[in-house]
Amino acid sequence: MTTIPPGATIGILGGGQLGRMLGVAAAQLGYRIHVFAPESGPANDIASAFTRAGYLEQDELIAFARTCDVVTYEFENVPLAALAAIADRVPIRPGVKALEIAQVRTSEKNFVRELGGRTAPFAAVNSLAELEAAIAEIGTPSILKTVSMGYDGKGQVRLNAADQAAEAWEAVKGAPSILEGFVEFSHEFSILIARGPDGEVATWAAPWNLHKEGILDLSRVPAPREIAEQAEEAFELAKKVADATEYVGVLTLEFFATADGPVFNEMAPRVHNSGHWTIEGAETSQFENHVRAICGLPLGSTELTAKKAEMENLIGADVDRWPEFLAEPGAHLHLYGKRESRPGRKMGHVTRLRR
């Protein structure tokens, strides 16, 4: 692949905080960014150019692609049709295959199983009758998830008994879904892997992820022993996924640490919330290595810069504590510039280093 040198323009589909942090990393390496999104957001604030249009507005997409030397995306729900509209005009990285797989939970889990990964028991559900049959097979407690468009606990309903089927089906509004059985686990963790166009791979320490009300609250490295003992097997699966999809960029796989080994939960074909600690906590952040990968540059070192690192999400009103975080020794505050604080909304994060 021809190297895309500094001074070129990176197109980003999506205008959220991940696009913002990608843009900051790109600017440090001398790149410009052009954001394409249906509404103004955090990424637009630091972009060299911004196109406000819907993802299915083909003329606008083509005009956007003409200004870019490479295009990436910052969230996994970009319509595949948007990529198809520009695929013959500009390189798109990570590409279409991983995005297509990640957009459908059943496809994602079947793909990982074919590569030898473990998953929770699951069944596709397209009607109330199918949900009742799946509950009879998998049992409860279990969780009903829409097959697409769910994140941060959205599009998910927990079932504690079989007689909750009708209520759960109504809660997901009859959307195509998947019923997943619960697994016994000690910790949740993720593997972030950066893959270059030549197959070169780099990975960071696996963070221990702690959630609150379905949203990531804390990520910590180094992880407890239970995770450390399973991280290598999880990394090998992540590498298989990256190789099988000819992935270019940062890929994230989430896991449960169980008595039988790592159990795959879900994948994100993008930079990830659980990797925000890498901005200060690693020699090269997930955002910089994503830029390096999609532009064909050598990947940077992922070694820790401190003995311990922690990322805390600032959700909703947490952002009002910014003076406290600025006064805290060893803390690094990142605010996303969102104009309105709402419950459940990610407003920023704090990284803490312990040297």
Concise overview:
The protein has eleven helices and 18 strands. With 355 residues, it is of the alpha+beta class.
Overview of the molecule:
The chain is α+β, with helices and mostly antiparallel strands and 355 residues long. It has 3 domains: 84 residues, Rossmann fold (3-Layer(aba) Sandwich), CATH 3.40.50.20; 61 residues, 2-Layer Sandwich (Dna Ligase, domain 1); 168 residues, D-amino Acid Aminotransferase, Chain A, domain 1, CATH 3.30.470. Helices cover 28% and strands 29% of the residues. The chain contains 11 helices and 18 strands. Strands 5, 10, 11, 12, 13, 14, 15, 16, 17 and 18 form a 10-stranded mixed sheet that branches. A hairpin with a 2-residue loop joins strand 14 and strand 15. Helix 1 crosses helix 10. The two termini are 39 Å apart.
**What is the CA-CA span between the terminal residues?**
39 Å
Low-confidence stretches: none
Rg (C-alpha, Å): 20 Å
In the CATH scheme, the class of the largest domain would be Alpha Beta
CATH topology description of the largest domain: D-amino Acid Aminotransferase, Chain A, domain 1
Helix-strand pattern, N to C?
EHEEHEHHHEEHEEHEEEEEHEEHHEHEE
Query: For the report, how would you describe the main beta sheet?
Result: 10 strands, mixed
According to CATH, the homologous superfamily of the largest domain is ATP-grasp fold, B domain
Number of strands: 18
Q: Which CATH-level-2 architecture of the largest domain?
A: 2-Layer Sandwich
What share of residues are in beta strands?
Answer: 25-35%
What's the rounded overall pLDDT mean? 94
Q: Fraction of residues in helices?
A: 25-40%
Structural class: alpha+beta
Counted up, domains total: 3
Please count the helical segments: 11
The coarse silhouette is globular
Pathway: Purine metabolism; IMP biosynthesis via de novo pathway; 5-amino-1-(5-phospho-D-ribosyl)imidazole-4-carboxylate from 5-amino-1-(5-phospho-D-ribosyl)imidazole (N5-CAIR route): step 1/2
Pfam families: ATP-grasp, PurK_C, RS_preATP-grasp-like
GO molecular function, one term: 5-(carboxyamino)imidazole ribonucleotide synthase activity
InterPro entries: ATP-grasp, ATP-grasp_carboxylate-amine, ATP_grasp_subdomain_1, PreATP-grasp_dom_sf, PurK, PurK_C, PurT/PurK_preATP-grasp, Rudment_hybrid_motif
